[in-house]
Amino acid sequence: MEILMEKIKEISPTTLAIVGYEAEEGFLTRVIEYEEADDYETTFSTQQVMGMTCKAFGISLKGLIEGARMLSGITHKPPIAVDRISGMYFFLSKKGLKPAI
Q1: Ramachandran angles phi, psi of 75, nearest 5°
Q2: How far, CA to CA in Å, does 21 sit from each of 52, 58, 68, 71, 95?
Q3: For residue 36, is it within any domain?
Q4: Is 95 inside a domain boundary?
Q5: Mean pLDDT, the chain, as a whole number?
Q6: Rounded distance, CA 1 to CA 36, Å?
Q7: Which is one Pfam family of this protein (predicted)?
Q8: How many domains does the chain have?
Q9: Which of 39, 61, 95, 97 is the most buried (most CB within 10 A)?
Q10: Angle at the Cα of 88 (from 83 to 90), degrees rounded to 5?
Q11: Is residue 8 assigned to a domain?
């Protein structure tokens, strides 16, 4: 599996999960794709990966979270819609291990 240190591949509707974990090399984020051969790992945190994905769609992760809180009334870890047309939704499941930079 490829480990990317300087950039990430585009997150798309075929992305199944973005999972942060601690490895011997330090903290890594695994991006799991529909096709297992397309899976990869990166040194960016899950929050950074999602932030870069949102920027690619011309939106901010912080704005999506605040909007989801306002619309749903969910104050803790609300689900966010990155791209409603293609069905890209992000569900935060637990606090990440690596602090966001």
Answers
A1: -95, -20
A2: 19, 28, 26, 31, 11
A3: yes
A4: no
A5: 83
A6: 10
A7: ComK
A8: 1
A9: 61
A10: 110
A11: yes
pLDDT in tens, 47-68: 889 888 888 888 898 998 899 9
Residue 32: pLDDT above 50?
A: yes
Q: Crossing angle for the helix pair 61-72 and 46-56, nearest 10 degrees?
A: 90
pLDDT for res 9: 79
Instruction: Measure CA of the first residue to CA of the last residue in the chain; give whole Å.
Output: 25
Classify residue 75: in a domain, yes or no: yes
- Give 40's contacts (C-beta < 8 A, 6+ positions apart): 1, 2, 3, 4, 9, 30, 31, 33
Please give the torsion angle defined by the CA atoms of residues 99, 43, 60 and 97, in that order, rounded to the nearest 10 degrees: -30
Whether 97 has a pLDDT exceeding 50, the answer reads: no
Average pLDDT estimate for 17-29: 87
| Phi/psi of residue 73, nearest 5 degrees | 80, 0
Look up the domain containing 70 and give its range.
2-90
